[in-house]
Write a structure and sequence with these properties.
The complex is a heterodimer of chains A (185) and B (145). In chain A, 5% of the residues lie in helices and 43% in strands. Chain A is mostly beta strands and 185 residues long. In chain A, strands 7, 8, 9, 10, 11, 12, 13 and 14 form an 8-stranded antiparallel sheet that branches. Chain B has one domain (31-141). Chain B has one helix spanning 57-65, and strands at residues 2-4, 22-24, 26-29, 33-41, 50-54, 69-79, 90-93, 96-102, 108-114, 120-122, 133-141. The two termini of chain B are 30 Å apart. Classes of the chains: A mainly beta (185), B mainly beta (145). At the A-B interface, β3, β5, β6, β8 and β9 of A face β1, β2, β3, β5 and β6 of B. β5 of chain A pairs antiparallel with β1 of chain B, so a sheet runs across the interface.
Chain lengths: 185, 145
Amino acid sequence: MQTLSSGSIGEESGLRNPRGGSLVRTPFAAMFVSLPEYKFFVPPEIAPPDATYWRTLGISTCAAWFVLSVRSREPDAVLDTFLLAWDSDVADSVRSMGVDVDVEGLMFVAPRMRGRKRGWFSRDVVEIWHATDPSDPDSKCILMVGQDGHEYAGFFMDRARGFVRDRLVARVGHSAMGHKSTTAT
Amino acid sequence: MFVTFPSFEYVVPPALKQAGETRWRTFEHLGQGFFVAVMTLSGDPPEHRRTLLMTWDSDLVHMIESPKLAATLHSLHYLSPWQGGAGESLCREVREIWRGVDRHAGGAEVITFKTPDGSAFCRQDAIPVAPSVQQKSLLATIGAR
């Protein structure tokens, strides 16, 4: 449990909006929400220190969120799955994991913004990049390459067109630090 | 189940949140799968949609059968890469939810989820529907309203 270092969350978060320059995250950005009635009691004797267990969690807004599956290379290691609200936290977490952890899966779940049918759709991600939107070169962002070959970025994981890939963070299915040999383009 | 740790919290001023609510940037999921449900509650304006992530199928059914619920607009099921293998994660839409009984298990209640392509599974960990399961009633057609 907790392969993802909690201290790594957001340590270097760019917190940038690829469409609108620097962005200070507000309570209106995507986050997960717990309420007391969602709690599941686990005796402290069998729970990690400070852990709280939940049957249900809510999502605060209609922005994209991420499901990250990682596995330590230790013998008999199990898969750890994390849900993250911000793309910058995904990049920071993956980068901080080190060579002994594999990123086995990454998916974003984003709001379907077009058409009558509202809800969520998902895409498997194969690469994570730091990138720049040419229309705002001061604005750094996280770019994700889907298994479908398209690039996605932003709060809603819109199709990103014309973004410049600055630095590879990770390829999914490789060591979290596997980018060392393929840094930058 | 979902697990949070204090360092995962995003502190929001009390004035900007509901009483008792805590906001999180991340959390861990323990288990094979979970459900995503978009719903509206009775008394809410139609545009006020709530999205919930649920670890247990029984909680989703409980919510769907609650008089507080106005409509379930959309539902997804996420299945993680298998713990012991090299599988891939799977995220698929749920179109129907059925209540049935398993004749070979003493008539035990079974909840079945059906996807748009006609496949079906049980529970959050997506076990196959046993041939001995007999569907009794349609609990919900997701997105019907």
